[in-house]
Design a protein that fits this description.
By secondary structure, the chain is an alpha/beta fold. It contains 16 helices and seven strands. Strands 5-4-6-7 form a four-stranded parallel sheet, sandwiched between helices. The longest helix has 15 residues. It is globular, with a radius of gyration of 19 Å. The structure holds adenosine-3'-5'-diphosphate (A3P). The site of adenosine-3'-5'-diphosphate has 21 residues, from helix 3, helix 8 and helix 14. It comes from Dovyalis caffra. Belongs to the sulfotransferase 1 family. Keywords: Transferase.
Length: 314
């Protein structure tokens, strides 16, 4: 399908569940999607041909995508301050199935700074590896996957949804937790998403770099250094240590969230939300302020069941 099909095509043919308010999620290839992203997703699979030099940032929503977009752009281009001051990270590095392919005519790659970079084109995606594998594997492009502990991811997601003007009623946290535990969340199940990239990073470490929000927050410098090495762009020349310090500083939550462009109440074109909504607290462990014991226990139980047998810990 040239345009990825219409919403109606998916609406009438896929398993569907109520998610938040009146919004439903559609199950497609084992994962849950908002209807509006399915045509664009199909277009990515049909038309996107990565180059071996491309870098693709993959993430489950609310796990640090915005931060990693800023970091990747800065590391690859070795100069970031001016670009970051004047462009929201999402306008520097577009998300394939949301910003570039949206089910209509694909957006021009060249309208995003990172997609016509002489160093390497950078794209982002929330698509699970299980769905994207046939698109990315043949090109040998590099992928960077960021993940975050499930409880902070869920709270960040829940807060993000509460800010959205498209939902009129508040979304009870108990409901959000139940849906999350049963896998029902856009691009979920979260656990399958993480494990898809985790396993691929073990199998192809030269191609897939796996990092957690928490380790990056704890010690950004060594991890950004490692990331640069993975990208074939190490910080080992004269004066490079200062450049690394500058990049880590410019991409910190405190700095990044205070640039005017990131404080803007202007709405993004591709989501009904202000640019500022991608920055909230940027803390590790914020879930403790929201989840009661019962909620904590139900998430911990599913985390043990899904992750611990695979050798991945949270
Ligand atoms: P919180 O809601 O917990 O504050 P995503 O970019 O994947 O949508 O994730 C958003 C989360 O990352 C939000 O978490 C946001 O505040 C946090 N974030 C954004 N920029 C960050 C940065 N530079 N450093 C650390 N966290 C950041």
């Amino acid at each position: 399908m040239e345009n990825g099909g219409s919403n109606e095509d998916y609406d009438s043919s896929l398993p569907v569940e109520k998610w938040c308010g009146d919004e439903k999620l559609y199950q497609w290839k084992g994962f849950w999607f908002r209807l509006q992203y399915l045509p664009g997703t199909q277009q990515v699979l049909d038309h996107f041909k990565p180059l071996p030099t491309d870098v693709i940032l993959a993430s489950f929503p609310k796990t640090g995508t915005t931060w990693l977009k800023a970091l990747l752009y800065s590391v690859i281009n070795r100069s970031s301050r001016d670009s970051l001051k004047t462009n929201h990270p999402h306008m520097l590095v577009p998300t394939l199935e949301i910003q570039l392919y949206d089910g209509t005519q694909p957006q021009s790659f060249s309208s995003f700074a990172s997609t016509n970079s002489p160093a390497a084109r950078i794209f982002a995606t929330h698509l699970p590896y299980q769905i994207l594998a046939d698109t990315v594997k043949p090109s040998d492009c590099r992928m960077v996957y960021v993940t975050r502990n499930p409880k902070d991811t869920l709270i960040s997601f829940w807060q993000f949804v509460l800010k959205s003007t498209s939902y009129e009623d508040p979304w009870p946290l108990e409901v959000a937790v139940k849906k999350f535990c049963s896998g029902l969340i856009p691009f979920g199940p979260y656990y399958d998403h993480v494990l898809g990239y985790w396993r691929e990073s073990l199998e192809r470490p030269e191609q897939v770099f796996f990092i957690t929000y928490e380790e990056l927050k704890d010690e950004p410098k060594p991890h950004v250094k490692r990331l640069a090495e993975f990208l074939g762009n190490p910080f080992n020349g004269d004066g490079e240590e200062e450049v690394l310090d500058e990049i880590v500083g410019n991409c910190s939550f405190e700095k990044l969230s205070n640039y005017e462009v990131n404080k803007s109440s202007e709405h993004t074109q591709w989501m009904n939300l202000p640019f500022s909504s991608f920055f909230r607290k940027g803390d590790v462990g914020d879930h403790i302020n929201y989840l009661n014991n019962e909620m904590l226990e139900s998430i911990d139980a599913i985390t043990r069941e899904k992750f611990h047998g695979s050798g991945f810990m949270y």
